[in-house]
């Protein structure tokens, strides 16, 4: 017990198996440190008298026999003879009760993935969650290639429990926050998620959608991958959210109907910003833009209604209406600084609008800062673009821009450039692998 209570962190268990011969090796797992660095630190006695080695009861289940067995790993590495054949599917840490991460060899990952596809219910819900969790966590920390966790997700077409879907939703949002939204990889990833959720949406969401209260609500979007806590969205909410984010036709149709009802003056129970975000890019045109603008202009004393209309105006995907919305943001005297800031933030977060807003802003910087009442503090507006820039062209553009704009602190400029460099580094490290897997596995 002292090895668990007397040192921080937890171990990573690396497994290699050849039939009945199993080798297990433990390492100190540190999310933000490589195995090489953590190994060097673990050798320093002043950091830890146990050398970051644990006495670990390795519990595993053999699906062929249905039996569970326990092996004790007390040293850095041990080899065992076990009752198993090459074709047996072994799952370690059943019940997700052991405080360690498991890394199988490539053959056992493949066997587990195949078993999930053929009969995922032979794993408990917690076990399905833990397999996805460990695989994505290992890939994120450069201990596994992303092909392996993506292969495991194929079974999700049959998954009807929220825990595994919650984890995959978090991972999807994490990827989308790092990818250029206009890239082939982002488009393929959305298509893959759409394929996973399509039949589940038809089976579980469409019949429920006839309830008096709309299913279309605002869901929390934490951009965190492989967290150590389990979020609490229910299954139908997760499938609805992912389907709508990936342009499921039936979701789009439902939200279009909600939009028409709202325009007609009917009370709707759906989250209106969600309706705008999903339906307006797909269906809206000149008549809706003019309706929203007239409502914004005609309700000068109704702050809340003006904000609703402004949100609609910043949700368009057409370059024509994005340009019109940017123009009123910058030049309409009826839009005060507070509403202008709200519209600016919404346009930055609209993938279709952000490039146009950047192009306008950099060429009209002083006027835009005056409109936003921010002539003495540029940091927020510069940073908002840096968080969204994902390409080398955008990086070069920002470097040139920062050289030309006065009164930008060195701290803000350095942080901005670092944000974009981090995005480029992530893309250079992972995107090709993810893209290649998606190209081979997505039906277009």
From TrEMBL:
Sequence ranges assigned to domain ERAP1-like C-terminal in this UniProt record: 91-405
Gene3D superfamilies xrefs: 1.25.50.20, 2.60.40.1910
Gene encoding the protein: Enpep
Organism name: Caerostris extrusa (Bark spider)
Name by which UniProt lists this protein: Glutamyl aminopeptidase
Keywords linked to the UniProt accession: Aminopeptidase, Hydrolase, Protease
GO MF annotation: an example: metalloaminopeptidase activity
Gene Ontology biological process terms, A to Z: peptide catabolic process; proteolysis
Recorded GO CC terms: cytoplasm; extracellular space; membrane
InterPro entries: ERAP1-like_C_dom, Peptidase_M1_aminopeptidases
UniProt family annotation: Belongs to the peptidase M1 family.
PANTHER family tied to this protein: AMINOPEPTIDASE (PTHR11533:SF299), PROTEASE M1 ZINC METALLOPROTEASE (PTHR11533)
């Amino acid at each position: 017990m002292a090895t668990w209570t007397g040192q921080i962190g937890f171990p990573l268990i690396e497994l290699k198996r050849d039939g009945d011969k199993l080798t297990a090796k433990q390492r100190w797992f540190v999310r933000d440190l490589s195995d090489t660095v953590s190994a060097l630190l673990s050798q320093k006695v002043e950091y830890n008298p146990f050398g970051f080695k644990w006495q670990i009861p390795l519990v595993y289940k053999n699906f062929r026999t249905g039996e569970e067995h326990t092996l004790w790993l007390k040293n850095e590495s041990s080899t065992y003879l076990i009752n198993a054949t090459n074709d047996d599917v072994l799952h370690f840490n059943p019940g997700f009760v052991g405080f360690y991460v498991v890394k199988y060899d490539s053959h056992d990952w493949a066997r587990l993935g195949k078993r999930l596809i053929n009969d995922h219910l032979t794993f408990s819900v917690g076990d399905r969650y833990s397999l996805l969790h460990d695989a994505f966590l290992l890939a994120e920390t450069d201990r596994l290639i992303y092909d392996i966790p993506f292969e495991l997700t194929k079974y999700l077409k049959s998954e009807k429990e929220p825990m595994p879907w919650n984890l995959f939703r978090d991972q999807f949002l994490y990827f989308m926050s790092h990818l250029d939204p206009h890239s082939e990889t982002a488009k393929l990833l959305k298509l893959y998620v759409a394929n996973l959720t399509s039949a589940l949406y038809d089976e579980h969401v469409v019949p429920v959608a006839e309830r008096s209260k709309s299913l279309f609500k605002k869901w929390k979007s934490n951009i965190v991958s492989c967290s150590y806590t389990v979020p609490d969205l229910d299954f139908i909410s997760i499938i609805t959210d992912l389907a709508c984010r990936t342009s499921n036709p039936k979701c789009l149709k439902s939200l279009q109907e909600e939009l028409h009802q709202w325009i007609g003056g009917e009370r709707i129970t759906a989250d209106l910003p969600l309706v705008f975000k999903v339906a307006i890019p797909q269906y809206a045109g000149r008549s809706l833009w003019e309706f929203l603008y007239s409502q914004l202009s005609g309700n000068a004393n109704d702050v809340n209604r003006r904000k609703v209309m402004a949100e609609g105006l910043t949700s368009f995907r057409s370059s024509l209406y994005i340009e019109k919305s940017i123009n009123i943001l910058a030049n309409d005297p009826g839009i005060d600084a507070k509403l202008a800031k709200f519209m600016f933030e919404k346009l930055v977060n609209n993938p279709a609008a952000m490039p146009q807003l950047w192009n306008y802003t950099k060429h009209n910087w002083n006027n835009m800062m005056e409109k936003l009442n921010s002539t003495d503090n540029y940091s927020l507006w510069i940073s908002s673009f840096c968080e969204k820039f994902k390409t080398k062209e955008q990086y070069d553009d920002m470097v040139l821009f920062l050289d030309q704009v006065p009164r930008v602190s060195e701290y803000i400029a350095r942080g901005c450039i670092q944000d974009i460099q981090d995005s480029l580094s992530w893309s250079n490290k992972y995107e090709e692998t993810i893209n290649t897997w998606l190209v081979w596995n997505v039906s277009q």
